[in-house]
């Protein structure tokens, strides 16, 4: 049964940055995120986002890209 009116996926965008992403259905998130990324690349040559290893949605988003990751343990305090 389809959940009508239930928000399962969300990506908040600010220009060429994916500022936040979340999901209540991790199995459907990758396809959703791929569509958003494709649309963003049609408008911008580069995209930015943060992917913490404790965030399943961010890791699914990261899996759309083939990049050489370096581990980072930066802490930012403003």
Report on the structure:
The chain contains 2 helices and 3 strands, in the order E-E-H-E-H. It is globular. It is α+β, with helices and mostly antiparallel strands and 78 residues long. The N and C termini lie far apart (46 Å). Helix 1 packs across helix 2. It has a 3-stranded mixed beta sheet with strand order 1-2-3. The longest helix is centred in the middle third of the chain and has 16 residues. Helix 1 links the parallel strand 2 and strand 3.
In short:
With 78 residues, the chain is α+β, with helices and mostly antiparallel strands. The protein has two helices and three strands; from the N terminus they run ββαβα. The model has no long low-confidence stretch (mean pLDDT 89).
Mean pLDDT: 89
The arrangement of helices and strands along the chain is: EEHEH
Query: Based on CA inertia axes, which overall geometry fits?
Result: globular
Figure out the total of helices: 2
Radius of gyration: 14 Å
**Low-confidence parts, pLDDT < 50 over ≥5 residues?**
none
Characterize the main sheet: 3 strands, mixed
Number of β-strand runs = 3
How widely separated are the two ends?
A: 46 Å
How would you describe this structure in keywords?
single chain, 78 residues, alpha+beta, 3-stranded mixed beta sheet, 2 helices, 29% helix, 19% strand
List the helices and strands and how they pair.
Elements (H helix, E strand, L loop, with lengths): L8 E6 L2 E7 L2 H16 L6 E2 L6 H7 L16
Parallel strand pairs: 2-3
Antiparallel strand pairs: 1-2
Helix pairs in contact: 1-2
